[in-house]
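Model it.
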Amino acid sequence: MRNATILARDAAAAHRPGPGLTGRVEQDPTGAGYPRVRTGGRRVMVGGFGGGGGRTTVAAGLGLAMAAHHGHRVVAIDASPDQCGLLAHRVGLIPPGVGLRELAAARPPVSSLDAVRRYLATGGSSGLNVLAGMRDLGGPGLVPEELAWSLDLLGHWYPVIVADAPSGWSQPVPATLLARADQLVLTVRAGEAEIAGADDALTALVAGGRADLATTVIVAVVETYPSRLSRGARLRMEHLEDRAYITVPVPFDPALTDSRPINWLRLRRRTRFAFQRLAGAVATAPMPGSGPALALARPALAAAGADNRSAGIG
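Modeled.
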């Protein structure tokens, strides 16, 4: 874990935006001292450890909830280097044949929202746009500089950026996302060992100089099959709830299985409410070194409250 945060700081410090991308540099409020280039846009990293933890499902559900029900212009990035088009498929979109690498390599650099959209999967009723990942899975892997460039570029035009990160934090790609993230949504399977691992991950964040992320982390506890939490798992959850900004259980839903495209209306009410809660938490959590983003919070809380009432909760 500590190696992950060290790599993250190095990646953030080494990258500088290319021609046409300028922004102010913020110092880490925790005192770690690494600069992060800010070009607008709230950057939300959806990450976790191990396979099958629901990262892509949570990234898709979160993006759909924010775009369709909170009225924000949202783009989701498929940053997993070993998949192409899966995130777009999960939200019912078809990638345009270009993606992250092509956007980063565009010459002259992309300089307008219309030009950016040529590289995105668009057209869904939700309004969510998706930047697909690597198309040539047999070619050179994703370079952190390509990812950093794309994040900075999209930050000019999108208020919210949701990044579906690969597993772990120690490799260069997730370390770059971790260094440049404003918020972390940590996905974990609903099991005692997995929840304990999430608690260890927060400790590692603090030790590595990202206490700002640790204190505002949003934990999504994903049920990947019908089950009930054991007594030990519930105790772990209670401890985790004391540390995280919010902990949101995402219930098992047959409509989310088999990596099929997510149809919002076919999700169970409890599932829709869980994604609404995640979106509301993202909208209201304070940015590093600042207070809550009220402009995002108002529509988020209103939408979550409406869905709450329709689901008969509260």
